[in-house]
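Continuing the series of single-chain predictions for the mutant panel. This is the parent chain; the variants come on the following pages.
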Amino acid sequence: MAHRRVVTSRVPASTMGSMRMRSLLFAGVAACSADPDAVAAKDAGAPDVAPEAGRCERDARLLAPLDYVSTAVVAGACDAKQASDFGAACGADPSAKACATFLAGNPTCARCILGDARPGPLRRNTWRLPEVSPGTCAQAIARETYEDAGVDAAVGGCGKALENLGACVDYACAKCDANDLACRKDAYRFQCAGADELVPYCTRLDVARCVLGNPADRASAIVTAVCGPDAGS
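Parent structure:
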């Protein structure tokens, strides 16, 4: 497959967070809450309210689009065990002490995960919180390269498509249990299918592993795609 170079704009890294907050409609996202007052309170900027036991209900919302900065694929930086261990240590909470311990004990693998000139799979999300980026996974699987884009350039392709799709799925299932895989599958296939025009094309490349599964499995799959023995191949 030919390498894809799709550059949409150039954005200084320091402004990425603010630009990501511009409104874009992701119609039909789901929220797991049986209490409409809790949803209204959240929309008004109130602190999170613990939802009553309920089911995931569809809820149309506005969600900010994500600018995507490319990563560097480094084949062989992490072996299969390290990718698995990273998922276990960092998947559920990249800020956890266990995650920091893993990164400190695996410097070569950690350099790929954290990135060097370009941000790695473990990066800051829209809200400046650490995430394991599904966009980096899709970029690697689609074999997209952006050497000529500059380290602060916002780019397109499957990287951007899956970054938006992953954010939509996370938002759809934010109040659900992290292991509620049925919610994620439903959001992936239906509510979030329009997150980016390239989603149908990228889905045919077997990028579902970048978004589906429990947090540990997703994190392992992402690192395997970007930093594993066969990364980018």
